[in-house]
Amino acid sequence: MPLEMRPDCERCGTDLPAEAPGAFICSFECTFCAECADALDDRCPNCGGELMDRPTRAKALQAKYPSSTERKFRG
């Protein structure tokens, strides 16, 4: 099963396109931008798991494997 590729940072709401680098995820796919991951000392505030670089998804594969459109930022 492919990653959800959530579209935004849960902490600040920054857009995180699936094809762009700069997103960080934990094992539950909680998603944060690089700035927020750094501010969180690379620890997920939801589960305490380690935040790691999220891989990118090639644009050519996004039609077959679309990224999530559900935004998680609660501002």
Automatic annotation (TrEMBL):
Alphabetized Pfam families for the sequence: DUF1272 (PF06906)
UniProt superkingdom: Bacteria
Identification of the protein by name: DUF1272 domain-containing protein
